[in-house]
Recover the amino acids of this structure.
């Protein structure tokens, strides 16, 4: 990574949307984007030391609720996944499971330098280095650890992005699932699978692209076992 | 009452209830923020939250019962609103009466139980079993209160109760013990702290709501608006003489909802069995004594 110009930048072309006939569609989209940017429920996945800066950001000193940001405890209700700190290989599995359960549009924020490039765990064998190789990250907030002001600044940047409708990396996860899955398989082994049917969801919601399926999803299908419910046993 | 007015009432009353409910949610969150010395959410936050949830692109449904459960939860309250008289609108209150209303108020919990059952999430199952136990806890004093009030006025018709109270004085002064027991039951009914063990965000991840995302959660947010409104209006109707015009009616219902909220955010929570013990002891005792005073 010595040469900045060599960092691959992926630009995607949006699929042409079907013509909207309703004259108020633009206004409606605007309203929805405004609501999505002003009401963000965050699921803070407190993996590392960076988590300690979140309580002051939420409570009376900095009070995130005045910006419409609230903590939420289950992935189904959350909009933002906050990954606060170093991500070990074992933790990353849980993060991916959590991420796939969230309803889109969903956003991921990597807090702390450790999520950007491994930080001071660069040489560790057990940590995933770049979070954005495994999940589509909207925004990084760097720092070891970033102060609450920085966290709130990052949140405001995300708000501005959502409202302008510029960034939609959550679609990237559906459109380039093969790439993300490949990186995940590289780390967890070929028999890695999650209960969420990402390809099926992508097809159902019309988000599938040419790179949704590929060699890695074929490996997934090869190893995939059907989900079975656990038998209820009373001992 | 001619039929046109009745239909207009049935359509208008839930809309009014929803708008007032939004303000009550705002008040709830503002009270919490002020008690914790925060600024609190902006003015339109409750509405923005609901729009956000309804605008989710992907929805996760766990099956037909999951969908029906939410419809029952909102529908139960929608039906209940048309039985609650407000100034200028009586709806179906003369047909339904307080007994029907009591039944309608149980539908949301049962609907939620159905829906959560299909999600097959252990946190949800624990949550809903706690919620139904809690319902058992607060419904006993609630039914005692309803019985006492109905006995006192000699009617189950809510609009008649209001006109009786406006003639002879508020129910809270004539039946202070029943009013006290009712306040207790109200606190349980709203599912706020000391009695919010079934939500318990940090332990069972919001219990019954754990698998609800997107439009499902939006539906539950709408339900919460109705829930607060129903609790406020019901208590006002039974004990505070209803409303002669909208201004004093609004002041009364917001005050009624504000009392449990202020208690809520200064308390930790009771365990389920402690809640049962507490609910079946003090409010039931007060309620029974109140009935004795009313009867003799
Ligand atoms: S960046 Fe620093 S504070 Fe954050 S997780 Fe890494 S070591 Fe901890």
């Amino acid at each position: 990574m010595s040469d900045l110009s060599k960092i691959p930048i992926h630009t995607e072309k949006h699929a042409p949307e079907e013509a909207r006939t309703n004259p108020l569609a633009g206004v409606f989209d605007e309203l929805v984007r405004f609501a999505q940017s002003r009401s963000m429920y965050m699921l803070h996945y407190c993996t590392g030391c960076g988590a300690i800066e979140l309580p002051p950001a939420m409570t009376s000193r900095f009070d995130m609720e005045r910006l419409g940001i609230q903590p939420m405890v289950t992935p189904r209700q959350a909009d933002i996944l906050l990954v606060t700190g170093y991500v070990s290989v074992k933790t990353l599995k849980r993060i991916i499971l959590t991420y796939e359960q969230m309803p889109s549009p969903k956003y991921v924020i990597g807090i702390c330098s450790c999520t950007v490039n491994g930080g001071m765990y660069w040489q560790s064998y057990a940590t995933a280095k770049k979070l954005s190789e495994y999940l589509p990250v909207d925004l990084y907030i760097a720092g070891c650890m970033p102060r609450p002001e920085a966290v709130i600044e990052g949140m405001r940047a995300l708000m501005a992005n959502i409202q302008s409708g510029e960034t939609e990396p959550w679609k990237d996860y559906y459109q380039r699932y093969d790439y993300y899955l490949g990186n995940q398989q590289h780390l967890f082994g070929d028999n890695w699978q999650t209960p969420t049917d990402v390809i099926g969801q992508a097809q159902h919601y019309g988000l599938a692209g040419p790179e949704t399926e590929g060699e890695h999803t074929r490996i997934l299908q090869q190893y995939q076992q059907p989900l079975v419910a656990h038998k209820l046993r009373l001992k | 009452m001619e039929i046109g007015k009745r239909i207009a009432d049935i359509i208008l009353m839930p809309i009014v209830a929803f708008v007032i409910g939004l303000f009550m949610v705002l008040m709830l969150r503002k009270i919490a923020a002020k008690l914790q010395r925060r600024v609190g959410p902006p003015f339109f936050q409750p509405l923005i939250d609901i729009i956000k949830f309804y605008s989710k692109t992907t929805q996760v449904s766990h099956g037909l019962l999951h969908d029906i459960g939410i419809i029952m939860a909102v529908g139960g309250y929608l039906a209940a609103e048309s039985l609650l008289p407000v100034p200028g609108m009586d709806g179906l209150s003369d047909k339904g009466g307080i007994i029907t209303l009591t039944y309608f108020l149980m539908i949301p919990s049962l609907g939620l139980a159905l829906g959560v059952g299909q999600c097959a999430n252990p946190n949800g199952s624990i949550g809903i079993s706690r919620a139904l136990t809690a319902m058992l806890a607060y419904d006993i004093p609630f039914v005692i209160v309803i019985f006492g009030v109905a006995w006192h006025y000699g009617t189950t018709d809510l609009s008649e109760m209001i006109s009786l109270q406006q003639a002879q004085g508020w129910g809270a002064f004539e039946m202070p013990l029943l009013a006290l027991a009712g306040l207790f039951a109200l606190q349980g009914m709203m599912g706020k702290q000391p009695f919010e063990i079934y939500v318990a965000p940090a332990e069972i991840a919001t219990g019954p709501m754990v698998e609800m995302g997107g439009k499902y959660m939006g539906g539950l947010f709408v339900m919460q608006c109705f829930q607060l409104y129903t609790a406020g209006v019901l208590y006002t109707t039974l004990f505070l003489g209803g409303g002669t015009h909208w201004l004093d009616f609004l002041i009364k219902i917001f005050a009624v909802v504000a009392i449990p909220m202020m208690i809520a955010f200064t308390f930790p929570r009771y365990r389920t069995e402690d809640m049962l013990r507490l609910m079946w002891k003090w409010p039931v005792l007060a309620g029974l004594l109140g009935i004795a005073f009313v009867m003799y």
